[in-house]
Amino acid sequence: MQKPHLIEFPKLGASDIGYISVGEANGLIPFPIERTFWTYFTPESIVRGRHAHHATEQVLIAVAGRIIVTTEMPDGEVHTFVLESPHVGVYVPPNAWHTMQYSHTAVQLVFASTRYNEQDYIRKYEDFRQVWGAK
């Protein structure tokens, strides 16, 4: 089972001309991308996420601002990642409960391994603990 971890994308360019970073399936992104979405203008007091997935893998990137991502694995292992560089993302595997808290200027880009399917979501923490048999 893969664990949440940071992925550093190439940062190509220079400060006088700007930068480009690239993520490709079968490269640093460990799955074929089926869906892309982004969140923005989230109030700093709001915690988003608060769910896990049965099958979906994701890579989250703060293309602007700061995002604090907290993950919990079925065995109770907790990781906290601070994303504040557009060339660094965090891999979130299936079965990881995750939350995100944003600076007001944050823009989050997400690459997902599946299309949206409500049946893939575990939205109640108690259900997450039961579904994955966490101890």
Automatic annotation (TrEMBL):
InterPro entries cross-referenced by the UniProt entry: QdtA_cupin_dom, RmlC-like_jellyroll, RmlC_Cupin_sf
Segment forming the signal sequence: none
Superkingdom as given in the UniProt entry: Bacteria
Start and end residues of each Sugar 3,4-ketoisomerase QdtA cupin domain: 4-131
UniProt-recorded name of the protein: FdtA/QdtA family cupin domain-containing protein
Taxonomic path: Bacteria, Pseudomonadati, Bacteroidota, Cytophagia, Cytophagales
